Amino acid sequence: MEPSKKNRIIGILICLFLLISISTIGYYLLLGISITDALYMTIITISTVGYKEVVDMTPLAKVFSIFVIFGGIGIVGYTFTTLEIIILESNFKSIWRNKAMKRKIEQMNNHIIIAGGSESTEVMFKRFQHAKKDFVVIEKDKEKYEAFLEKEIPALLGDATSEDSLKEAGIERASGFISTLHQDADNIVAVLTARYMNKNLYIVSRAIEKNSREKLLKAGADNTVSSNEIGGNRMAALVLRPTIISFLDTITRAGDVELDLEDIVIGQASSMQDQSLKQIQIPQKIGLTVLATKKKDSDNIKFNPDPNEPLKAGDSIIVLGTPEQITELRKLADDDGIREFHHGR
User: Fold this and answer.
1) Maximum Cα interatomic distance, the chain, rounded to a whole number of Å
2) What is the pLDDT of residues 208-259, one digit of tens each?
3) How far apart are CA 135 and CA 137, in angstroms?
4) Do residues 267 and 313 make contact, with C-beta atoms less than 8 angstroms apart?
5) Which of 36, 86, 92, 143 ranks highest by number of CB atoms within 10 Å?
6) Is 62 part of any domain?
7) Environment class of residue 15 by beta-carbon count within 10 Å: exposed (0-12), middle (13-18) or buried (19+)?
8) pLDDT for 12-34, tens place per residue?
9) pLDDT (tens digit, 9 = 90+) per residue, 56-112?
């Protein structure tokens, strides 16, 4: 609940508590009755139910009752009005937010569709937002869906295995589909449906059971990821080869600075064309570490590349450095950062 709404409700409860407390003490003093009877008098007066008073009313007590009645009517009226405003505001805000989100999704192109929200999707969101890649989440749990909207994460309330939900998420215009549902059967259905609706879609799916990878690949997935397998391998490696794992963690962090591992594609308008790594001097001028290169239309990655080999448009350079350094090299390479993946590649 928003702080302003919470404060209004707390204010109402405080006013009601003060009215009951003051009225009870007033009847206790004016009529000389017990606290229980005074509280009873307060309740029947505020609620105007018309029950008989516990003792005969004095003229001063009658005047006091008039103020108690008006106070009760005022607070009750304010309570209903405030609650009605809160409900209407919530409904209006929800309707407006849903419409705005649908318009935003309708404008997306070459985006990523994520099926299901989980702990791992939070990491994906940060990666996609950092890379400025459009994405949308399909979530069937309403609480999770509302939480995504509160964080301004593009989301749709629906079933990721349904053609209607996938169509609403723009499956025909999407470039990638990630299925992170909690059951292998659901992931298989989601992958089958997504592949049926977009033959060129690049699909990655979560695999839970050991034998699910083969089934997901047959259903149309291009790749699968098993968090259990990755976690198990890493824990074993930490015990067997702690120095190697420590080194791999260290090379992506320099003190308090987080380093990114990125690929830079040479664009058609780049001045880097037909120049070698030795001529460009990326480490000296920008500060990035060049780890490997990859030729256009080739799947072979050359580690420790030849510094004298000229680069062509479409070639890729894999580098390690800060986001600012990578942005600088992207500008030099005329690389917009957009990557299109297609089924079968």
Assistant:
1) 107
2) 888 899 999 999 999 999 887 878 887 888 888 888 777 767 666 555 566 7
3) 7
4) yes
5) 86
6) yes
7) middle
8) 888 888 888 999 999 889 888 99
9) 888 898 889 888 888 888 887 888 887 777 777 666 666 667 777 888 888 999 999
- Report yes or no on 163 lying in a domain: yes
Q: Are 187 and 206 in contact (CB under 8 A)?
A: yes
Task: Tell me which residue range forms the domain holding 290.
Answer: 254-333
Question: What tokens does 257 get?
Answer: 């600075």
**CA angle 47-48-50, nearest 5°?**
125
Residue 344 included in any domain: no
**DSSP class of 209:** S
Would residue 341 count as lying in a domain? no
- Give the residues across from 310 on adjacent strands: 276
- Give one DSSP letter per residue of 32-71, joined into a string: ---HHHHHHHHHHHHHT--PPPSSPPPHHHHHHHHHHHHH
How far does Cα 240 stand from its chain's mean position? 36
- Cα–Cα distance, 105 to 83 (Å, whole number): 33
Helix (H, G, I), strand (E, B) or coil at 342: coil
Tens digits of per-residue pLDDT, 255-302? 556 678 888 999 988 989 989 999 999 999 999 989 899 998 888 889
Cβ neighbour number for residue 83 with a 10 Å cutoff: 14
Residue length, the chain?
345
Summarised one tens digit per residue, pLDDT across range 321-334 is 888 888 899 999 99
The answer to whether residues 321 and 260 touch, using CB atoms and an 8 Å cutoff, is yes
What pLDDT digit, counting tens, does each position of 120-179 carry? 778 888 888 877 889 999 999 988 888 888 888 899 999 999 999 999 999 999 999 999
Q: What angle do CA 145, 84, 70 make, to 5 degrees?
A: 150
This prediction has a pTM of 0.62
Q: Are residues 63 and 26 in the same domain?
A: yes
**Could you tell me which residues come within 8 angstroms of residue 200 by beta carbon, excluding any fewer than 6 positions away?**
342, 343
Within 8 A by CB and 6+ apart from 273, the residues are 266, 311, 312, 313
